């Protein structure tokens, strides 16, 4: 038999394999091989590089005239900006010299202008920025004036307008930031707050607020132990990239001996009442009223019958007199709105605050009112509203304080433990939103796997 016939006589499918899987694989291999040979057959052949025509192009390029550029730069007036800090014992001349200012007219203006003279009253460490011309003439100078508590109150800008100078003041625009810190007690509270393990230590005012916030549950002198932890969320205020002051604690969490205490600040934007601290379930953590409107004083006349010191008439004394020196700060005993602020007969300088429900308080014989105290302004518990004096029918410096319910005087000693007004349904809804945010922040600050045993309320 012809060998060729022997091969071709066989079924082509038998050459692809005996099983279905083998036949599929063999057919795929044959198809790919055919594609490869086809691609090689139609691929163009690259030309030889020596056969590619080459063209040379020559062009003259005109270089820039450096002399013209230098002359143009010399014609432009150069300006220089400089920032310096006021040093102890600085004079105006020394400060301006460091700022690169050589301008007799500017010096004369600063010394003679009432507003510009604020530059000469700056405290050590405060920043001053200036821009000058190439010959040292002052173009503008900026700085910030602070109050007795080192808080910024206004910006002063001195500018050159043609051949003369002007001085302008503007409100300080502070940037508010919210910061979060977590600390563990290894030796003492202050060692933990002074630690900068996360890049910054806690401001002293925030430490004081932590102690005040949790002191009703924790004795910070004896209750702390190694391993206690606290988390705090607070606000800070910045100007030109530098922290000016710390604000209020927005939320705090302290774990002491395995028990966790939490507090959240809440101030309802739709209410005229001031804010306060609450537990995460919405229960107020403070009393509605302070026991006394003065931090340190003694009661010179109580809520009782007495002979009036001026008229000599035996009559009811419907308030409490606190003896204190002139100028002693007077605090609002509770959140509320100023209902009256001004002179009122024998009361002298007088303030009345309307609190929640039917409660109101009155403060008499003040020497002066605190800034911003006027009818309709909102005050929070502890805010300074005025200062002790002896105005009106008074024989000496003291504060006359009245606590009123439905406009009738009551003994403050018997109503001082009234609880803070509870949140209504709408306030509670808004509070839960704020509390959820702070609860999430607490969770971020806690170490992984840390559990919390909440204190009973």
From TrEMBL:
SUPFAM superfamilies: Duplicated hybrid motif
GO molecular function, one term: metalloendopeptidase activity
DD-carboxypeptidase/endopeptidase Mpg-like N-terminal domain span: 82-137
Top-rank taxon: Bacteria
Keywords associated with the record: Hydrolase, Metal-binding, Metalloprotease, Protease, Zinc
Residues covered by the M23ase beta-sheet core domain: 316-412
A matching Pfam family: NMB0315_dom_I
Cofactor dependence: Zn(2+)
Statement: the UniProt record of this protein carries the keyword Magnesium: no
A GO BP entry: proteolysis
Gene3D superfamilies (UniProt xref): 3.10.450.350, Glucose Permease (Domain IIA) (2.70.70.10)
Name of the protein in its database record: M23 family metallopeptidase
